[in-house]
Amino acid sequence: MKSTRLSHLRKGGGILAGVAASLLAAAPAFAQAAAEPTVNKGDTAWMIVATVLVLLMTIPGLALFYGGLVRAKNMLSVLMHVFYCVCVVTLIWVIYGYSLAFTGGSSLIGGFSKAFMAGITPESKAATFTVGVAIPEYVYLAFQMTFACITPALIVGAFAERMRFAAVVLFVPLWVTFVYFPIAHMVWYWAGPDAIDAAAKVLAAATDEAAKTAAQAKLDEVNADSGLIFQFGALDFAGGTVVHINAGLAGLIGALIVGKRIGYGKELLSPHSLTLTMVGAALLWVGWFGFNAGSNLEAAGGALVAMINTFVATAAAALAWMFVEWAAKGKPSLLGVLSGAVAGLVAVTPASGFAGPMGSIVLGLVAGAVCFFFCTTVKNAFGYDDSLDVFGVHCVGGIVGAILTGVLVSPSLGGTGVVDYAAGGKIAEYVMSTQVIAQLKAVGVTILWSGIGSAIIFKVVDLMVGLRATPEAEREGLDLTDHGERAYTS
Amino acid sequence: MKLVVAIIKPFKLDEVRDALTSLGVHGLTVSEVKGYGRQRGHTEIYRGAEYAVSFLPKIKIEVAVASEQVDRVIEAITGAAKTGQIGDGKIFTLPLEHAVRIRTGEADGAAL
């Protein structure tokens, strides 16, 4: 089976490479230096489409999903927050964000070697998950840019209806710089399959002890040139840790620090347009195919796995939420179905390229029920005002997805298994406990980094410009007080 | 003369109007209003957050009629607006002292 799955490199990959060496020793022809990776126009075309789809899921998708959920007097405020995120992060990304996330440096953060897009031309290439196949670096940069844009946009739902716009303006650049770029680097940065494959072949071809030692050192060096969480062997196909746990926790921290909305728990804070929320949720689902299937980086089998998983997990989670809500609250609500669908999209994100479709259905059912429990019972028990349930859907759904990814990747459960490029691209032996522990470590590091980093940044912003709108402004609505306009005039 | 004020369910407006028209009632005034009676509103649930909505949308009809017509008007409104469910509404009657048709200056019975 030719696979394009993300490599699974554990520390001690040298052992696997040693196995590879003995297997490949009989085929010294492979030991030649790898050919220059080629770019396929089909892959490029698909990645352009996927990139645009992720933008679509952010604006207008996420913006409308969130906008419909707030009161009419804060509609524009929320739309503005999301739109601002896209604009400012786009510029930060090309100036230094891409470089910090996707160049080598330490295992925690990259460097500035590609700042201001230095050295990136239409001809430069980025690695995919297949040896010898590349995509243009421009499209990889743009695709990853859309991820960086949507992640802070997810956060703003947690403190909607009370955060000053000036605070958002300051928070977003700081947060992507100190929280998003490092975590994206830790989870996703690696040297790429070609470098590992080439190093493994050199090792396999080495005949004497000295050459073997040197080749082994080279392979270790290539393996070490990756992010911390990647080195754990943790799997995150399209951003369960990087995007959802990260944003969800930052949202909760923000909601706690800025405080509850005036009237929370006492007054009617109902959504002003579930119609727009439905439009937004549906656009999220559509755009999510770019998010998940695009994360395969190639228009190949792996993209199809991600596509079908994105269909079925989402449907399962929407129905799970609906039936659980029906049983617990007496009525199946549209908002419940929409929330369940988003929870399913979140949960399948890390697993989308690894699980099988039947596993994804189970994943969706679990995510729908668990997220419902957190958005209703847990939220009410603790009394935090996460306005639009960013924590309950994204962080909780992300954690469910991240952990179950470790289970569902199992070939015995219909998953794809994990490719070991150091062993010539074969599926590595799967041990559930090892994989789940790697996933838990990834979740733990993400929670710590995002939680502590976000708390510090919110405090700094609070000191500099103040987080909270005045009570008068909050009562009047942020549309008028922050932006001088209203969403609906008659 | 009497002023009949009826609070009814919004979707019953057309039936009530038809019933009144068939009685020979020539005009009425309609307002969209909000309120509650014994029903005390209802509950809406958004992602587990329960909100008690106490003020429900209703229609208020005001119609001025001759005193001898009042019973039939009340009967017509009751018949047309009734669903048998809670929240069907109420009818009030008030004494009406004077009525003037602005266009012609006609007064009282002639003005209705």
Automatic annotation (TrEMBL), chain A:
One of its GO terms (cellular component) is plasma membrane. InterPro entries: Ammonium/urea_transptr, Ammonium_transpt, Ammonium_transpt_CS, NH4_transpt_AmtB-like_dom. The keyword Hydrolase does not apply. The chain crosses the membrane at residues 45-66, 78-98, 138-160, 167-191, 237-259, 271-291, 303-323, 335-355, 361-378, 390-409, 436-458. It is a multi-pass membrane protein. GO terms for molecular function: ammonium channel activity. Keywords: Ammonia transport, Membrane, Signal, Transmembrane, Transmembrane helix, Transport. Residues 45-488 form the Ammonium transporter AmtB-like domain. Belongs to the ammonia transporter channel (TC 1.A.11.2) family. This is Ammonium transporter. It comes from Variibacter gotjawalensis.
From TrEMBL, chain B:
GO terms for cellular component: cytosol. Keywords: Nitrogen fixation, Nucleotide-binding, Phosphoprotein, Transcription, Transcription regulation. Pfam families: P-II. GO terms for molecular function: ATP binding; enzyme regulator activity. The keyword Transcription applies. GO terms for biological process: regulation of nitrogen utilization. The modification O-UMP-tyrosine is found at Y51. Homotrimer. In nitrogen-limiting conditions, when the ratio of Gln to 2-ketoglutarate decreases, P-II is uridylylated to P-II-UMP. P-II-UMP allows the deadenylation of glutamine synthetase (GS), thus activating the enzyme. Conversely, in nitrogen excess P-II is deuridylated and promotes the adenylation of GS. P-II indirectly controls the transcription of the GS gene (glnA). P-II prevents NR-II-catalyzed conversion of NR-I to NR-I-phosphate, the transcriptional activator of glnA. When P-II is uridylylated to P-II-UMP, these events are reversed. This is Nitrogen regulatory protein P-II.
